[in-house]
Design a protein that fits this description.
Blueprint (H helix, E strand, L loop, with lengths): L10 H13 L14 E5 L10 E9 L2 E8 L6 E4 L9 E6 L4 E2 L1 E2 L24 E3 L2 E2 L1 E7 L16 E11 L4 E12 L5 E7 L4 E8 L11 E3 L6 E2 L8 E2 L5 E4 L9 E4 L3 E2 L7 E4 L3 E3 L4 E8 L2 E2 L7 E3 L8 E9 L6 E4 L3 E2 L13 E3 L7 E5 L9 E8 L2 E2 L7 E3 L8 E9 L6 E4 L3 E2 L6 E6 L7 E9 L8 E7 L2 E7 L6 E8 L3 E11 L10 E2 L3 E5 L1
Length: 537
Amino acid sequence: MVQSVSRSPRAWLAVVGVLALLAAGLPSAAHAAGEDTIIGTVVVPAGVDVNDLVVEAYRADGESWRRATWADPEVDGSFALTGLATDLGYRVRVLSYDDGYAGGFYAGAGSQPGRGPDDGVSVRTGQAGITLSLITTVELTATYTLPPGFEWRSVWDTKDRLVSFAAEEYALDGTGWRSKSVWATVGRDGDGTVTFTGLRPDAGYRIHASDTDLSYAARFPKGYYREGVGTLIEREEFATPVRIGQTPHLNIGWTLVQPKPDLVAAPQLSGQAVVGSTVTASTGTWAPADVDVAYEWLRDGVVVPGAAGPQLALTAADAGASIAVRVTASRQYFDARSATSAATRVAGLAAPRAKSSPKVKGTARLGATVRATGPTWNLAGVATRYQWLRGGKAIKGATSAKYKLTTADVGKRISVRATGRLAGHEDGVASSSSKKVAKGKPKVTAKASSVKAGTRAKVVVRVKTAGLAKPTGTLTVKLGSQTVKAKLSAKRKGKITVRLPRLRAGTYTIKVSFKPSKKAKKLVTKASSKKVVLRVR
């Protein structure tokens, strides 16, 4: 781990150094590479004060790095690191106190400065001069939500501060958090916007917030930013490193919550999904990885009682159903999170096979009732269910063994499909041959009562058709050589009274015929009544 150092006053050191070199008769920009010296040049961007730069040499000290020496660059950027051991390799970095630029470790000619010593290359004393460069820094903005009813109070010498923020540089190579922090605050007159400057574009940062009013008890807790939470978390080790450029702006709430494990990959099922077999669930992939998991098995979305392990033995109850597993990940300092696998249909054992086809019994005519019989199955205990079909398509609600034919069936072919079901097996299916449904045959009746001569008699006519409650058409009443016609409308519901002409005394024979209307003709046939005798006194 590399620790940042505080700068001592620089200007007078630079002046003393230049005067000493001039007194020795050497130009200030020149350095001799002695056996204990590393020399080089810092490329100083325009507008950068060389007094804001420091060059340091680090040597390995076990598993960490220790600073061996440091030097101030000259006005032209040249530097000399002296008093170094000649048998060691060093990591050399330039440290910048200018917010517009970040330094780093020498990583070879033409290479961008590395973030840490391990990103640099070894430099030995006495070798040719090296060139150090700087990186242009970037900004990161965040919006911080104020606590409800927040009370402003003076904060010592920074009385306008509300919240203090720090962005700690994160080593993307996994070696840990750097100690360097970039600080920012939210002021009383601000809109909650926080701006971090001086950030490396190739680094990641951990963001945390805290109350700066140290003279009182904290008005809200210190917390760390975690992606997807929307507010702060307490444990710093679970903070999300913010990559500059990938996250141009952050929205941060002031409250603390416990994060949930991140789902990297959903759980999956393996094994043959068939009755009698066993399927196995994976845990899924979570971050952090060291989570505890619990299993719940689902059958068609409903929890299977007692199924709480990574394996499920498939039984007859699972045949034809869709199974899935729900994995819940939990961990200390985290709230639990669940993820469900994709559902898989469970295949049953071999389906029952029909030894004979089902049959449609009865006359296929409008208003008639047909019934299904059979089939016989090759397995015992098979339950048969029926579905009536019109033109090969299922008739809604027609699922019993009997079916009454309707006007929608006239002229169409009907059949029945039988489904055999046996626990643990796939469904067996067998279909009957089809029958064409004929038109209905109306039944016409006539009734006439005796009347006195010279009085107009009445004939009551009824037209009944099974499956058609309101037949329409024309009635023709024949009375000897006379004919009387009448319209049978739908509102009559098949019954009409026809008045006959005045008749002399005698006995008359009446016969009524029915001719369906154009619409009714598609559903019923013509029909006639039996002869009726009318007596006129």
